[in-house]
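Aim 2 progress. For Leucine-rich repeat-containing protein 2, the working sequence is reproduced below.
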Amino acid sequence: MGHKVVVFDISVIRALWETRVKKHKAWQKKEAERLEKSALEKIKEEWNFVAECRRKGIPQAVYCKNGFIDTSVRLLDKIERNTLTRQSSLPKDRGKRSSAFVFELSGEHWTELPDSLKEQTHLREWHISNTLIQIIPTYIELFQAMRILDLPKNQISHLPAEIGCLKNLKELNVSFNYLKSIPPELGDCENLERLDCSGNLELMELPFELSNLKQVTFVDISANKFSSVPICVLRMSNLQWLDISSNNLTDLPQDIDRLEELQSFLLYKNKLTYLPYSMLNLKKLTLLVVSGDHLVELPTALCDSSTPLKFVSLMDNPIDNAQCEDGNEIVESERDRQHFDKEVMKAYIEDLKERESVPSYTTKVSFSLQL
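Predicted structure tokens for this construct:
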């Protein structure tokens, strides 16, 4: 007997599968519509949203209004943008640090530090910025392992005396807050290396006790109301960077040459009429930034081609602040302008560093800027 060959009509098989596919798609569409109308799906969506908010540390008051949960993705997008901005502003080696020892907080919905922070005394770094927090609690003295206090652009008006208990503190940044004084107890932080009090606008003096800070290499007290270089700063023997721009200085002390290690000196936007000849004794000074609009006398040796100094004359025009009924708006605009000035100067100094290899005659820079 020969083999039997079964012959099928391919068109019949194709029609059968097309019918099945259409029925399956119709069922999927109907199921999707059912789930969309289902209360269980809504509950699941809200639950996942709440879990995501908790994971990101968003307070319940932000996403829960009158018992209803706002599941708008715009809220999470805003928090995510703030987080990414904070991460991009940290040093490149930030990822190398252990997050178990670093506390980060950002966003205007924060008006005070979380209660749970008090129990995390193992932390070595605080990075808190762009919040409405006004007070640093006294329990900060419990954080004996603290190395970095990074607190810029908040509403802080007072630093507790207990900050002097942080014997291992190396960096303190309280720039662009609302401080009017610095506690003298900070002088007990003898391992401090960087101090940034810029942009507080009302700060007029630093306590003499800060003279004990012999390890400090960086001090920024720009955009305040200093009328002279603080005595304690002159006693910081290892100081390499000093920014006292945008203050009320009319002259410099004759013993400014006590800062033998000083390399960068920023003095722009003051009321200086002359520079003392003692500055010629600052042998390591490589960058000097002054506001040239009031200068009438300058040691000619500062511009001598044999010196390593890059002399920058920054000429700026006074800005007339528009009068407005709300005084707070004037203060805020001044704060923003000072921050913008610092960003411009920072960019220019970075550009100067890139000129290290150019011919020597280009190292003397005359720079004119109008803001």
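The CA atoms of residues 263 and 285 lie 4 Å apart. This observation will guide construct design in the next reporting period.
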